[in-house]
Design goal:
117 residues; 35% helix; alpha+beta; six-stranded mixed β-sheet; NTF2-like_dom_sf; Nuclear Transport Factor 2, Chain: A
Length: 117
């Protein structure tokens, strides 16, 4: 059985490489996402949001990942085009091998400023 930490690692690798088929397979159909730049309900909305961020994503630099039986917190720098890296915390809840909830916290001001130029 795949652990929540392994699922989280696969999630970030798939997002960073643009492998949205793998990413979709890690999400529960009713996944709920809340982040600094929006909210998504359901896997298709979540994938659409991740694709959107993927257009400006340069890389993800993971610094730490802490997990228990159902929850994973990943601390990373979000590197995007034209903005300084954004220190970011991502909490994911995993049930039956799928991510069911995602919460992301970071300061989006530089990313938003870059996008408005």
């Amino acid at each position: 059985m795949t652990t929540p930490a392994e699922i989280s690692e696969k999630y970030f690798t798939a997002w960073e490489t643009g492998d949205f088929d793998t990413l979709r397979g890690l999400l529960a159909d009713d996944v709920d996402f809340v982040g600094a730049l929006g909210r998504a309900r359901g896997a298709e909305e979540c994938i659409a949001g991740l694709r959107g961020m993927g257009r400006i994503l340069e890389r993800i630099e993971v610094h730490a990942r802490v997990a228990d039986d159902t929850d994973v917190i990943t601390w990373f720098d979000l590197h995007t085009k034209g903005a300084a890296p954004a220190p970011t915390a991502n909490w994911s809840h995993v049930e039956d091998g799928k991510i069911t909830r995602i919460r992301v916290a970071f300061d989006p001001r530089e990313i938003l400023a870059q996008q408005s130029r």
